[in-house]
Amino acid sequence: MSETRTAPPVADAPARGPAHPLPLGQPQPPLGRYLRCRTRGPVPVTALFPAALQQRALADLARVPAMLACFIERLGPHPFDACLLVIADDPARVPASPGAAVLRSDSIDGSGSCDGALADAIARQWFARGTEGADARDAWLVPALARYATWLWCEAAGDMTTDALAAAEHARLAGRSAGEPRDAPEPQGAPTDPRAGRGALLLHALRIELGDVRFFELLQACSLLHPTGAGTTDGFRELVGAFAERPVDVLLDAWLVDAGLPPAPERRRRAQRRHRR
Fold first, then answer.
1. pLDDT band for position 274 (50/70/90)?
2. pLDDT (0 to 100) of residue 120
3. For residues 189 and 180, what is the distance between their CA atoms, to the nearest angstrom?
4. Buried b / exposed e across 112-151, counting CB within 10 Å, b at 16+?
5. DSSP character for 256?
6. Range with lowest mean pLDDT among 74-88, 159-173, 176-190
7. Which H or E run contains 184?
8. Mind spelling out the 3-state secondary structure of 195-245?
9. Alpha helices of the chain — where are they, by DSSP H?
10. Cys staple from 223: which of 34, 126, 142, 269, with CB 3.0 to 4.6 Å?
């Protein structure tokens, strides 16, 4: 169904307990002829996109239910009662709102090249409620969590493993530090953000240190953080400490405090430490 819309502000979703999905507002797309597409499922999906992009948008959005299934398995229940995707020529004209993922229309080409950007935008629905701190030192947290979720989707989709993506990201950051740009594979369309990359590497190092069970419990706990102060670096460190079997301050300091780039996290190092015990 096509609709002509203007764009009043999107209503913010009020904070509620984690057992109750947050309600979405009723956003309006920017001026123009837009189509509304809905899918059913455990998390209903509504997509708004320019009518001229219908064929390409439907092709690129086809994997959204699989992305949601991957994130629900790894990050916990979707925090809203539905998933909203808005594709717009100028995302700045779509007022920001919890629960709404906004993508640029020029990233939609029907080939799946926007997969990384789409996964990143959807993953932020789990974390943007409670992990965006007002202090600049906390600004890495949401991008890092979303980037790692994108890696999880990439692995689930059979493209690259999280180990390979972490190695590629580390090589990219190492090349940037040395002033030598390096080409390295990454999820298609994923936003380029050094803070997100370094933070995602910290998360991968924590996954190796904690083990998968505790690590994914940590991610689910991150998605439930309350927006009044818990979404800070200090709050994250406390949360990690609650899931760690031994102190991890040195590991956290290496990625969050020290200026230099730590060695790439590798699973075999964990295995070697166990063997020496």
1. very low
2. 92
3. 22
4. eebbbbbbbbbbbbbbbbbbbbeeeebebbbbbbbbbbbb
5. H
6. 176-190
7. none
8. HHHHHHHHHHHHHHHHCHHHHHHHHHHHCCCCCCCCCCHHHHHHHHHHHCC
9. 54-60, 64-75, 115-127, 141-156, 162-177, 194-210, 212-222, 233-243, 249-256, 267-276
10. 126
Longest dimension (CA), the chain: 67
Q: Which amino acid is at 173?
A: L
Please give the structure tokens belonging to residue 205. Answer: 């190092």
Tokens representing 254 are: 């290496």
The answer to whether residue 7 scores a pLDDT higher than 70 is no
What is the token pair recorded at 56? 């390409």
- Report yes or no: 131 and 225 within 8 Å, Cβ to Cβ: yes
Contacts of 91 (CB under 8 A, 6+ apart): 102, 103, 104
